[in-house]
Structure formats: C-alpha cells, structure tokens
C-alpha cells in the first residue's frame, strides 16, 4: 500500500506548490472566504425556499403533508446520489469550474420552480436543484485545503457553514414578508435572478488562482503528481473504517439538520400553532443563534490546535459534545409549552453548530489534499441519505400518529448513534490504495 499522506512532492509540481504557498499568505484568500460564505448562503436559501413556501403551496396546489414530504425529499435523491461523483469531479477539474457549473445549474432549476405547476414537474425541478448543489460542500472543503493554513481551516469552514445557516434564516425571514403579498411563484423568480450576481465575482477572483495552484493547473497533472484519483480508487475509499465512520456519523448529523431545514416551519405552524409571521421569527432565530455558535466552535477548535493539542482529538471532542447537545430535540418534542419547545430547539441547533465545522475539518485533517474533495463527497453522501430519509419518515410518522413527537424522538436517537460512530470508527488516517482490492480498514 502506498500512503498518500507520506508521498513526496514531485519536482514538476514544486513551482506550483510554491505559488500555492504564496497564495496562502495573501490577504486575497479572505475574499475567497467571503465568496464561499455567499455561495453557501445562496445554496441553502434556494434549497430551503420550498420549506418556507410549503404552507401556501400546499393550499394552492392541494398537496397533502405526505406529498409535500416527497417533494422536500426529492432534492436529496439526486443531491445524495451525486456526492461521490461531484467530489471526484472537484478533485479532477478544480474548484473554480466545478463550483461555477453547479451554481448555474441549480439557479436555473430554482427559477424554474416559479413555472412548475404539476406534482411531477415540481419533483423534476427539485431533483435538478439537487444535482447542481451536489458540488457545494466538496468544492468548499477542497478550497479550504488548497488555499488556507491548517490552523485557519476551522475558522474558514465555520464561516462558510455559517453561510449555510444564514441562508436558511434569510429565506425564512424574507418569505414571511414576501410570500403573503407577492405569491410563491414571483418569490422563486425574483430570488433566483438576483442570486446570479455571484457567478462573475467567483470566476474573476479564482481566474488567476486556478492557473497557479496544483489542483487547478493541467500542466501539473503528470502520472506522478498527487492530483486527482481514478474513479475506482475513489470507490475503494468506502472500504476503510474511518471513511465508514465519517459516512455514518454525518448521516446522523444531517438527518437532524435536514429535519430542521425541511420540517421546522411546518412543525411550528401545524404542531405548535404559530402564525406565518411568528414562524418567520421563531423559525429564523434558532438558525441565527446556531450561526454564531458555529463560528465560535471553529475559532475555539483552531485555538486549541494552535496551542499544540492533537487536531483529530480536538475535532472529535467538539463533534461528540455537539451531537449530544443536539439530542435535546427529544424533550423539545415532548414539551407542553410551545416556547419551551422553541428554546430546546434553539439549544439543539446550537449543538449542531458546535459539531458542524469540526465534521468537515476532521475529514480534511484525516486526508491528504489530493482526496479531500472525494472523501468530502462520501461524507456528504452519508449526510444526504439522511436528507432523503428525514423528510419522508417525518411526513409518514406525522400522518400516522397525528403528531411530530415520535419524529423528534427518532431524530435525537439517530444523533446519539452518530456520536458512537464518530467515537469508535474513526481512528486512522485515510489512505489511498493502488487498487480497490487493497483498501484496508
């Protein structure tokens, strides 16, 4: 077996590596951070728009909660399926081109929601949205690995993940005031067109960087250059115990996260009887609070690592603590008072915020840069299997039991199992084998 972590740098890649090192010292990398945050904000605002529009769309198009559960889940069918190919593609063609292509595709799909009137049409558009957005997290993780120092990656990762949380909060806030007066069709149309401004900014900023950094420059892709994997090598990674732990642990994290992003507005309206405007407030503030906790978690973990603590141990500790706190979603479902439920949901989301940046930076520190995009894709594949299951199972349970209580208890139990996966399965660095049959755990 040859370990990618100990593989020496080849001479034909040395000049490009020096250029990358210079970029890591340049203040321009913080402009990249801003664009990563903005891209993630738009992505999560777009994917969350159906959730906040659901009450009006269900009434307008005569859709049951079970049918809406299918529509909410449809995004994750293709989003999950495309994670490994998207991560592999990022490692092969580079962050700049892969992210830009995905962004254009999903924005076109989002705008098309304004014109989809049938059940099948809505499913098709949601699936296309999932294909486009599959690139976001693998590309963001690879960008951090390429252009930021190890002691910065927790903070930068927390930054773009905060963009994801703020996107969910932003779409909830805007929807509460725009949907009533303008309707859901115009809401999708206007929000989609405005978001296209990100594309030229992204292409211009990374236009110079992808000409000098190893992951992006075609001249440096020699047979001995540590850039990109074959697809068979990518599949072989799934046999390693640490990769399985990443997959299962992030399944649990994302099951909870996607429960919140898909069903929290409906839960507040249907179970806790909040008005649409109240839902805009109490469905937004928990995500805002989570965003702040995510930033603090990324910064605090970086500080501990900078002081000499083991990076893998620090990242795992933050993940375990966060997942256990997030399990407070169970008593939130049992609470009699609707405000007590909101408080517990807020604390639960804060727990996800503690774990959030460290789930991604743990993957980065376990892997060499060459395979960060691919393993991040595997991680997000596990997460988005949870994204498929959570909306469907929640809708089914809510119909069968007439309540969301059991659905929230299931969510908390899955979080506890995810903590066990992170604790006991992830113990070794991820290596790449010469052939799929040589992968080890």
Estimate the global geometry from the Cα principal axes: globular
Integer count of domains: 1
Indicate the CATH architecture.
Up-down Bundle
Amino- and carboxy-terminal Cα gap: 12 Å
- CATH H-level superfamily title: MFS general substrate transporter like domains
Order of helices and strands: HHHHHHHHHHHHHHHHHH
SS strand fraction? under 5%
| Annotation field: number of helices | 18
Cα-atom radius of gyration: 21 Å
Please tell me about this protein's structure:
- The protein has 441 residues and is mainly α.
- The chain has a single domain, classed as MFS general substrate transporter like domains (Growth Hormone, Chain: A, Up-down Bundle).
- It is 78% helix and 0% strand.
- The protein has 18 helices and no strands.
Chain-wise SSE layout:
Elements lengths: L13 H12 L3 H33 L3 H17 L1 H11 L1 H18 L6 H15 L2 H12 L5 H43 L2 H12 L21 H6 L4 H30 L5 H7 L2 H22 L4 H16 L2 H6 L3 H29 L2 H33 L3 H21 L16
Helix pairs in contact: 2-3, 2-5, 2-7, 2-8, 2-9, 2-11, 3-6, 3-17, 4-5, 4-7, 4-17, 5-6, 5-7, 5-8, 5-9, 7-8, 7-17, 8-12, 8-13, 8-16, 11-16, 11-17, 11-18, 13-14, 13-16, 14-16, 14-18, 17-18
């Amino acid at each position: 077996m040859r370990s990618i972590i100990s593989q020496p740098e080849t001479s034909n890649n040395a000049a490009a590596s020096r250029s990358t090192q210079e970029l890591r010292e340049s203040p321009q990398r913080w402009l990249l951070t801003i664009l990563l945050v903005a891209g993630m904000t738009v992505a999560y605002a777009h994917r969350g728009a159906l959730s906040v529009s659901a009450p009006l769309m269900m009434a307008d198009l005569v859709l049951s909660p079970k049918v809406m559960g299918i529509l909410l889940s449809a995004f994750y069918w293709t989003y999950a399926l495309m994670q490994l190919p998207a991560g592999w593609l990022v490692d092969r063609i580079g962050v700049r081109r892969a992210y830009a292509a995905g962004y254009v595709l999903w924005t076109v799909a989002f705008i098309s929601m304004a014109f989809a009137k049938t059940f099948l049409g809505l499913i098709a558009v949601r699936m296309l949205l999932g294909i486009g957005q599959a690139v976001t997290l693998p590309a963001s993780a690879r960008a951090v690995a390429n252009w930021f120092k190890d002691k910065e990656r927790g903070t930068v990762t927390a930054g773009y993940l905060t963009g994801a949380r703020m996107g969910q909060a932003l779409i909830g806030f805007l929807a509460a005031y725009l949907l009533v007066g303008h309707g859901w069709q115009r809401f999708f149309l206007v929000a989609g067109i405005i978001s296209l401004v990100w594309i030229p900014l992204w292409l211009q900023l990374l236009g110079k960087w992808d000409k000098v950094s190893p992951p992006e420059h075609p001249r440096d892709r020699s047979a001995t250059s540590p850039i990109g994997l074959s697809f068979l090598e990518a599949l072989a990674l799934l046999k390693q115990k640490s990769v399985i732990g990443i997959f299962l642990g992030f399944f649990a994290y994302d099951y909870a996260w996607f429960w919140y992003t898909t069903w929290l507005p409906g839960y507040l309206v249907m179970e806790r009887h909040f008005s649409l405007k109240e839902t805009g407030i109490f469905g937004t503030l928990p995500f805002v609070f989570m965003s702040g906790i995510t930033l603090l978690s990324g910064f605090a973990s970086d500080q501990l690592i900078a002081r000499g603590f083991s990076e893998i141990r620090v990242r795992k500790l933050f993940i375990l603590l966060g997942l256990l706190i997030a399990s407070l979603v169970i008593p939130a479902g049992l609470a009699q008072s609707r405000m007590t439920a909101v408080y517990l949901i807020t604390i639960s989301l804060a727990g996800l915020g503690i774990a959030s940046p460290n789930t991604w930076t743990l993957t980065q520190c376990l892997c060499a840069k060459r395979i960060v995009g691919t393993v991040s894709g595997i991680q997000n594949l596990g997460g988005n299997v949870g994204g498929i299951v959570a909306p469907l199972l929640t809708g089914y349970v809510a119909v069968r039991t007439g309540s969301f209580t059991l659905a929230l208890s299931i969510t908390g139990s899955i979080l506890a199992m995810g903590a066990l996966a992170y604790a006991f399965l992830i113990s070794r660095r991820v290596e790449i084998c010469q052939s799929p049959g040589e992968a080890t755990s």
